[in-house]
Amino acid sequence: MKKKNDKNVATITRSGELTPLELWEKRAHDNAQLVRCMHETLVLIEKLEEAKELQEELPMPYEALEKIAVKALAGIAQELEARFGISA
Question: Which range marks the domain in which residue 58 is found?
Fold first, then answer.
């Protein structure tokens, strides 16, 4: 019989498995990362569309901004593929 202050309490999971709370925390963290990537993509596309409308007022050529945006989107896509296995 276990004592109240026994420090050697066996868990209900096997070695190397996550507990239900740890699994929930991992899923919440993964979901937050996915939402962050989606938000960054949305903001990047919106700002690029705004810049296209204001091409004459930009201090640099629109094509340069577009190249920077494509590189940023490629980085987000690589992160999604590495972390979640999602590829575009």
Answer: 20-84
